Amino acid sequence: MMPKLNVPYLKSSELLKELIRMKVLFVSSEMSPLAATGGLGDVTGSLPEALRRKGVDIRIVMPLYNRIKQNYASQLRFMRWSMIRLGWRTMYSGLFTMEVNGVPVYLIDNDFYFGHDSLYIDYSFDIERFSFFQRAVLEAMGEPMGFHPDILHLNDWQTGMIPVLLEAHYQSHNYHPRTRCLMTLHNLKHQGIHGREVVQDLLDLPDSYMTETAVLKDGAPNFLKAGIAWSSRVTTVSPTYAGEIMTDYFGEGLNDLLTAQSWKVSGILNGIDVDLYNPATDPEIAANYNAKAWIRGKASCKKSLQDELNLPKKQKTPLFSMITRLDSQKGLDLLLHIIDELLEEDLQIVVLGTGDPSYERRLQEVQERHPDNMRAIIQFDRHLARRIYAGSDIFLMPSLFEPCGLSQMIAMRYGTIPVVRQTGGLADTVEPWNKYEKTGTGFGFRNINAHELLYTAKDAAALYRDDRESWSKMVVAAMEGDYTWNRSAGAYQELYAAMAAEVR
Predict the structure, then answer these.
(1) The CATH number of the domain where 369 resides is what?
(2) Cβ(157)–Cβ(131) below 8 Å
(3) I need a surface site. Which of 156, 179, 196, 393 has the fewest CB within 10 A?
C-alpha cells in the first residue's frame, strides 16, 4: 500500500528537475552489513541502494565502529579530521569513506565513542556518543565531504537533534540554508531522553531552545521529539503504523505532537532484500524452489529441518516457526499463555531467538514438557533462520505492535504462511485468508488476546491439513508478493523531490 504524500502541485516536468539535481545524505546509527543490530540496519543497507538505482545521489553517514575497522580496514579511505566541541571537551573527529554495493558511505571516527564491541552501550553514555555523532555529521557535510545535501534523511533518536543543531549553529549563520530534514521513525520506544543541563552543554544550545515547544518533553530534552518537531517531514515504516502512533496506546507519549503535525506524517512500507531471501537461489537451504514449483523443494527443506532439530519427520504435521527477538513487544506472553494448549494439537513449533532471560527460560521449559514437538533455540543465527523460513509451514508473529516488520515478508517469500496480529506493517503486508473468496496470504487476528491467537493458529493448521488446494493457492500468492525496496524507493523519491521543491 502506497501512502498519499500530499505533493499534487508537482508537475511531472518539475518532479524530473528535482530528481535530477537532488542530493540526499542518509544519517543512521547502523547499517547492514557493516554494523547492525536489527531493522534499522537492514533499512540503511537496502533503501539507499534502491534509491541510487533510481538515480538519486544518496549517500550514507554513520559511526565508524570498532567492528567496521576490524572487518573492512582495507576498504576504508581517510578523508580528513577536525576537532568537535562537546561540552567542556574538544574531541577528534575523523572522516573516512568507503563504498558498499555502489553506495558511498561516510564514517565518523572517534575511538573514545565508537571503539567498542557493541553499537549501543549505556543509555547515558549513548546520549553523549550520539550527540558527538550529530555534531560531527553537520561539521563534515559540505566542503569536508565534498557533498552538499538538499535533504538530510534522519533515522530514530540517535539523529533527532540534527534539525535543531542545523538551524541553531549553521542556518542561522547562512550555512546550508536550503537543506531540509526528513525524520523516519523506526522505534518510538527509544527517544533519547536526558537531563537538561547535560544535553544543553553537549549541544551548545541557547536557552531559547530549552522549551516544551522546542526540544523539551515533560521538562527534559527529548531527541526524538526534537526530530519530529523540527523536521520538514516525518515518515514511519508502514501506513497503518503512521495512524497508530497518533493514539495513546502506540504513541509512547508523543501522540499529541504527532497528531498536531499530522499534515507532515506519512507511512512508507519497508521492503526486504529479495536477492538474499530467495528460495530459488538460497545456498543455505536443503533444496531450492520457486512459486511455480514449490511443493517438493519445501518438503525437502522441512524434512532437513526436522532432521537438524531432531524432530519427528512428519510431512503432514504443520510445522510452526517463530524467529524473533525475545521481547514483550513480540507477543511472547500471548504465545506462552496458550502454547501448551496449542501443542496438544498434531503440530510442531520451533522458536529461534534471544532476549529477555525470562522468556528464554520459559520457552526452554515448554520444550522440556513437549520434547517431541517443540524446539526452543536460544541463539541468534542468520543461517539457521533461513533454513527455518524455508522448512516451516506457518510463521507466528503475534506482535503487540510492529512498525513494519520484516520477518513476515521473509516468511512469505519462502512460502511460509504468517499468522499475525493485524497491527502496523503486519496489517499492511499480510492479507488475511478469505475462505469464501479463496484469497489471502496469511491469517490475522485483531485484539491483544491469547485465545484469538490460539484459534487463528488452529485455523491455519486445519487448512494446512484439510484443504491442500487452498493452501497451495495461498502459498503461491504469498511467494509472488512484491517485497522489494523498489516500491518504497519510489515513494521516498517523490517525497524528497517535494521537499526540495519547497525551497527552490
Answers:
(1) 3.40.50.2000
(2) no
(3) 196
